[in-house]
Specification:
Elements: E1 4-8, H1 15-27, E2 31-36, E3 41-48, E4 57-65, E5 68-69, E6 80-83, H2 88-92, H3 96-107, E7 112-115, H4 119-124, E8 132-133, H5 140-145, E9 149-150, E10 155-158, E11 161-164, H6 170-184
Length: about 190
């Protein structure tokens, strides 16, 4: 039986940051589930960089069904966790069910991959204190306020925590996450 990986997300998550790890981990042989505040069709967004804008732009992206509501997740059934970015983490960090899930993964030292604004979730449970991470560069002060050392790098590995800045860093992010994952929780 394949090891299970949990992706936690919601509406306004960055499309690529959900779907790339979903497909890459399935390709590797893992059983991947998407959890959100409720079982429903999620509406993702596309963040892109355009000349003349001081920050990224946002457009409607793909839709995708959530397999589980956060209240249905049994963290002990999962070998690892993926936390995509986008705007979803801004409101998801207030969800008490999600905070319980996150805490369980960190308390068990299971592999966690986070990207872009995803570290806002791990910061909300105190999971970044004393760690070295990267995130979307605009979050540098948030990461420092959470007790983390911020590095502006494609990918940062701190034990079982693997972080990346944004979707342009996917290949390095998944390469390093799979290295951690294969050591801690092989696909089969």
């Amino acid at each position: 039986m394949a090891a299970k990986i949990l992706i936690v997300t919601g509406d306004a998550a960055e499309s690529l940051e959900v779907l790339y790890p979903y497909q890459r981990l399935r390709e590797e042989g893992y059983d991947v589930h998407v959890a959100a505040p409720a079982r429903k069709k999620l509406r993702f967004v596309v963040h892109d960089f355009e000349p003349g804008f001081d920050t990224y732009t946002e457009k409607p992206g793909y839709t995708w069904p959530a397999d589980l509501a956060f209240s249905e997740v049994e963290p002990g059934q999962y070998a690892a966790l993926v936390i995509p970015g986008g705007r979803a983490p801004e409101y998801l960090r207030n969800d008490p069910e999600l905070r319980k899930i996150l805490k369980s993964f960190f308390d068990s030292d299971k592999p966690v991959a986070q990207i872009c604004h995803g570290p806002l979730l791990t910061a909300a449970i105190g999971g970044l204190s004393g760690r070295t991470v990267t995130a979307y560069p605009a979050l540098e002060l948030d990461m420092q306020a959470s007790g983390a050392t911020f590095r502006d790098a494609e990918v940062v590995v701190d034990g079982t925590l693997v972080s990346a800045r944004a979707w342009p860093d996917h290949s390095g992010w998944m390469r390093e996450f799979l290295t951690v994952l294969r050591a801690k929780a092989p696909a089969t």
